[in-house]
Amino acid sequence: MKMKRPTGFLTATFKPIILVVIGLCFIYMIKINSDFKTCGTRRIHDVDPDRAKRAQKYVEKVLQAECRPSFAKNKMNKLFMNKYSMDVTPFINKDISAQPSLFKYDPPFGFHKFSEKLQNLLQLLPEYNLPEDLQSKHCKRCVVVGNGRILHGLKLGSVLNNFDIVIRLNSAPVQGYTDDVGNKTTIRMTYPEGAPFSQDEYYPNGLFVAVLFKTADFHWIEAMVKNETLPLWMQLFFWKQVAAKIPVTAKQFRILNPIIVKETAVDILQYPEPQPKFWGWSKDLPTIGVTAVVLATHLCDEVSLAGFGYDLSQPDTPLHYYDSFCMAAMNGQTMHNVTTETVILQKLIKEGAVRDLSGGIYCDFCEKTGYN
Ligand SMILES: *[C@@H]1O[C@H](CO)[C@@H](O)[C@H](O)[C@H]1NC(C)=O
Ligand SMILES: *[C@@H]1O[C@H](CO)[C@@H](O)[C@H](O)[C@H]1NC(C)=O
Ligand SMILES: *[C@@H]1O[C@H](CO)[C@@H](O)[C@H](O)[C@H]1NC(C)=O
Question: What is the percent of the chain with per-residue pLDDT over 90, rounded to a whole number?
Fold first, then answer.
């Protein structure tokens, strides 16, 4: 009897708080929907066919030239001098105890306090390199396909398929958009909330590169590898509904080396050293997109990107090639500094370290007097 009172007391105290929190979430969701989800109804501008042709020609030219081994890495090393690490392993391997720097920062910049969870997870994952056929290739050309609207109508699909490695980000779909984005996915790089729901977006040989942010992310991967269903309550720890099952085997999973996230943030974007903050990282967190570009410089000999470039001065234009979010959503978010990222990507492209195939960051194939 006596045990009951505190419980009832607690429930009575917290009930209004819980209701308020649920109410606020609801209002926030409505706000997101009304602010950002209106661009699909606007008239979609046709892409200038001339621009599309020039883009396609440009990609063909990039692919016809001879591939230069270690080109991207050497360029990055020159641009960022001793800050760019020439020999970081892109994916975490079992030998983690030999890498103390791995545990210096909290996720996603490191695995501080996650040593045991990481070890448990790694026991389930047998591989940590590229698949053998790619690994042994003398010179690899990669393209990071961003999710930007700029891909719409450029019809780069068939040329993008000719890269050795195609890296896609988060939930970006292929099905229904193959003319513009191709149908090859060598790597999908995402956190659990970004994993596509559709089984058709996964390929038997594709790699799933996980970016880990929190404890629940470890549990999610473990569940996916074991083909188990996460308990329903665990959904609370994700900021968005996560896929319940994905057709990815243990052999296909890789864990992104968080040192690459740290390198992207601190050494390349020159953000301050990561500090644990209760409310997350205010604008000091690199996007998956720019992180994937840095990953690609470690993984591949030559690196291109496509579908990058957010024009923040056009808040009511569509953001992605596949949904109806508006550019305003990028202004509304509080984690990433898109301006800084654009400046750095421009630098990489102008210096020739990476190529911009769709011209959204810096256009190499646009005529000086042309549209764009
Ligand atoms: C991509 O599409 C081409 C035809 O357009 C097809 O031959 C090929 O099998 C497809 N590849 C994948 C991985 O679906
Ligand atoms: C995963 O589990 C489901 C049942 O939940 C089963 O139908 C399916 O065959 C399993 N897949 C594998 C690869 O074991
Ligand atoms: C983003 O970074 C730029 C410097 O590159 C700075 O001027 C700007 O204030 C930052 N924006 C935000 C919202 O933090």
Answer: 70
